[in-house]
Amino acid sequence: MPIYNKLVRDKIPAIIKSEGKTLSTNILSDEQYLKELRIKLQEEMQEYLEAPNDVDSIEELADVLEVIHSLTVVHNSSVKELEQVRKQKAEKRGGFEERIFLKEVIDD
């Protein structure tokens, strides 16, 4: 009997039950939820870093994005506001499209 003790997507319990399996779950407090979302973000980022190809990379990035959407709500914001902040930062500091790799800065 595998023990997972981890945050899962909302429909996972129903999927497991549809396979004729029994499971146990509980609903997390706000504090536990934030903690587990942070753990889940690390887990999904690691899976992205280990993805062997573009298709798997996109699947993992979608998982990362789902966790980010949930974290945005936990931090009393919205995806729309998050995108606005991202755009403001890109306008002020740029994005990463030019692939600039800073080697060093020499102080005068």
Describe this structure in words.
It is a single chain. It is elongated, with a radius of gyration of 19 Å. It is built from four helices and no strands. The protein has helices spanning 12-18, 30-49, 54-74, 79-93. The chain has a domain at 27-80. Helix 2 (30-49) runs antiparallel to helix 3 (54-74). The model has no long low-confidence stretch (mean pLDDT 97). With 108 residues, it is mainly alpha-helical.
Given the helix and strand composition, which structural class is it?
A: mainly alpha
Whole-Å distance between the termini? 64 Å
Shape: elongated
Largest sheet: none
> Number of helix segments?
4
As a whole number of angstroms, the C-alpha radius of gyration is 19 Å
What value does the average pLDDT take?
97
Question: Which percent range fits the helix content?
Answer: 55-70%
Detail the poorly predicted runs: none
Give the topology string: H per helix, E per strand: HHHH
Number of strands: 0
Strand content: under 5%
Protein name: Phosphoribosyl-ATP pyrophosphohydrolase
Keywords: Hydrolase
GO molecular function: hydrolase activity
InterPro entries: MSMEG_1276-like_NTP-PPase_dom
Key terms for this structure?
108 residues, mainly alpha, 4 helices
